[in-house]
Each structure stands twice: as C-alpha cells, then as structure tokens.
Amino acid sequence: MNSRHFAVFFVVLAAAAPLAAWDYNGHRMVNQLALQALPAEFPAFVREPANIERVLFLSGEGDRWRNVPDLIMKQSGGSWTDHFCDLEQLSEVGIDPAKVSSFRYDFIVQFAAARAAHADKLPKIDPAKNADHTREWPGFAPWMIAEHFARLRSAFAYLKVFEELGTPEEIANAKANAIYTMGVMGHYVGDCAQPLHTTVHHNGWVGPNPKGYATASGIHSWIDGGFIAKAGIKLDEISSQVKPAQPIALAPRADGREPLFVAVMDYLIASQQRVEPLYAMDQADKFRVKPGVTPSAEGRDFIKARLLTGGEMLAAIWVTAWRAAPPDTFLRTQLIRRQEEAKGASAGAGRP
Length: 352
What we know:
Layout: H1 3-16, H2 24-37, H3 49-58, H4 61-66, H5 71-75, H6 87-92, H7 104-117, H8 141-165, H9 168-193, H10 219-231, H11 236-239, H12 259-272, H13 275-283, H14 297-323, H15 329-349
Helix pairs in contact: 2-3, 2-14, 3-9, 8-9, 8-12, 8-14, 8-15, 9-14
C-alpha cells in the first residue's frame, strides 16, 4: 500500500469510526495519527490494513489489563501506575524529574527511601483503598514507555535477521511481535499527552488552591472523553496537521541515562506544564458544552493539540526503534549455523 492509498484508507477508517471518547476511541486516534506520521521508508508491512487495525485495536490494551480482579496484575503489568506519573510527588521528596534514573528499579529504591525520609510531604495512604499496593508510588509511565521502546527495538533487530535468513513463518511471527509492541506502547504515550496523567491534580485540584480551580472529581473523565464526544472532535480535523516523524537522537549522555528515556521524561514535563492552563480553561468554561451553543474553539483546539502531540511522539519513538535496531548478531550466528547444518544433512543424505 503506497502513501496515497494509506491516506485514503485512513479517511475511510475515520468516517467509519467517529471519535466518541479519549478512552478506547481516543487512544485509537493517537495511534492513527502516529501511523499517519510514519515516513515512507518505514517498513511497509505496518501499512497493511490488517496490521493497521491491529495497531489501533491494541491502543486499548493497557486499559483492558486494568479491568481484571487479580491484584497481582493490578500492581504489575496491568497496573494503573503504569499509566501516569505524578511529577509533583517526585519534587516533593527531593527528586528532580529532569534528572531521575532511567532504570525503573533504581528509581523505585530511590523513591521509597525519599518517601520514608519525607513522609510528611505526601498524602497518608488509606490501607482500605490500597489492596493492590500501588498508592505508595507516583506512577511509572515514562519507564513503561521506555521499556516498550527497548522491546520494539529488539523486535525490529531480530526481524531484520529473520527477513535475511529465516523461514516465512518466522518472519510473520517477528512482524506480528513488532505490531503488538507498537500498538500496546501507544496507549501509554497517549496517556501522557493528556496533562492530567502527569499530576497530583489528576481529578480535581488538591492542596492550596488560591485561584479557585475545580476540586470535584469528574474533570479527568470529562477531558478524557466527555468533552471530545460532546464537542464532536473528529480525526480528520487533526490529520492535516500531522508532520512526518523524525527520530529521537540517541547520543550517549554524560550522566549515563538512556537518551530515549530522557526524551520521554521531557515529554511528560512539557505535558505537566499544561495542567494549570487546562484548569484555567475549565474555570473559564472553555470545556463546557451547552445545548444550542457552539463548543469553545479554545477547548477544542487544546484537546486536538494534545492528541496530535501524542501521535507525533509515538511515531517518533517507533521510527527511532526501527532506525536504531542493529541486526541481532547472535540470532544471525544461530541461523547461519542452522543453514550450514541443513546443507550438511542434505549432502549426507545424497551419498550412496
């Protein structure tokens, strides 16, 4: 499918599936925008209709994992904490979000110690509301995204070798793995484009509130989906603004942190800077939808910009993973050995 047909396909897809909310449908939109941002040289199999639909379907996987009763799943893998990172909590206990470790478990140890040393800085934990033992943590979204980048880079690394030396079945499975990782990753990148996934003020302003922002719960779900549905925001309003994705620079850093993780954390920090503007717009009724009144252009533009930002960041991560994936040399050695053994066995079978 060439780029022109790819664009036509998305027009048809958008018409068939109007945006209803920034939950599953909203996450589909972020993944759609990311797919549209891919440069022409990106692997063509991703543009096959079945794979496009797979990437879009998987945009909702992160939330499906949360909808199970298993507490172990809720704490790890399907954890709500992988969907956000309350950056203020890091600052409250003396951790600079711009300098935090790119290793998840190193950060966990660091935060646990900092929380114990600054227990008075963070809200008390109600055991009755902490059955899954997640309330102790500020959220792990940037680590989740960076870890998926590493998985995707691995998938592309072994795909390149299977395409050279593998069987059709191995190639198909490797492609399926890349598609899966691309789709699932999109959920978390999309989450972090929504400013309320980066803040303690995720569902109503908490703590000192001199400007009188909304404190009642409900703002999160309204921004996630209610406003988008009522304001009738559609994919084709944003598609024309998509720019071809550029890879993220992966030059080694003097501080030893992973460059991709740093880029992701910068993405969250930039999103958090839009938290107070979001609350100010809510206070000014920019996200209000009234019967017979055209929804606010400012509110619509704010949400469309966040969706676009999520799609463009996701595409940049995908492109970086592809371009930065060296062929898996260990796998190549194994496959070459397999070929040689097969040739030897064939030659032996032909002897009288």
